[in-house]
Amino acid sequence: MKKYLLGVTALLMAVGLSAYTAPPKKKIVDLYWFVVKPGYGMLSGFSNTMVDFHSKADVVPTGVCMVWPWTYKCVIGFDPADVDKVNNKLLPGSYFPVAIGEKRPTF
Predict the structure, then answer these.
(1) What tens digit of pLDDT does each residue of 14-32 get?
(2) What is the pLDDT of residues 56-98, one digit of tens each?
(3) Which of 3, 41, 73, 97 has the fewest CB atoms within 10 Å around its CB?
(4) Reading across the β-sheet that carries 75-78, which strands appear in turn?
(5) Residue 90's CB: how many other CB atoms inside 10 A?
(6) Could you tell me the pTM of the whole model?
(7) Which residues contact 6 (CB under 8 A, 6 or more apart)?
């Protein structure tokens, strides 16, 4: 009976302590950041004709749209799978950004 009680206690402690372990860190992926052309800031899906390439980085570019108040999309980030890496353009079709950076007052 003592072995059984010690086994159950050890199991409960293992489950309880596992709740305090840190989750594995995700690898930060460099996104391809684009500036939205005027007139397209209110949309959710974008094609190559609606954006201009800005940079490739794992952080949001700043200082691109310096006007306040910010309402409409100005800088958006796309997954590398959505981008033609040779020409730094979106592949044909419509894509949804995985990150939204700076905004601007006009769409």
Answers:
(1) 666 666 666 666 565 789 9
(2) 988 888 888 766 666 778 888 899 999 999 999 999 999 989 8
(3) 3
(4) 51-57, 31-36, 75-78, 99-100
(5) 21
(6) 0.68
(7) none
- DSSP characters over 53-97: EEEEESS---SS---SS--EE-EEEE-GGGEETTTTEEPSS-B--
Distance of alpha carbon 16 from alpha carbon 55, whole angstroms: 45
Q: Which residue has the tokens 């995985």?
A: 98
Alpha-carbon Rg for the chain in angstroms: 23
Residue 65 near residue 41 (C-beta atoms within 8 A): no
**Cα–Cα dist 46/18, whole Å:** 43
Instruction: Tell me the per-residue pLDDT of 27-46, one tens digit each, with 9 for 90 and over.
Output: 657 899 998 888 888 888 88
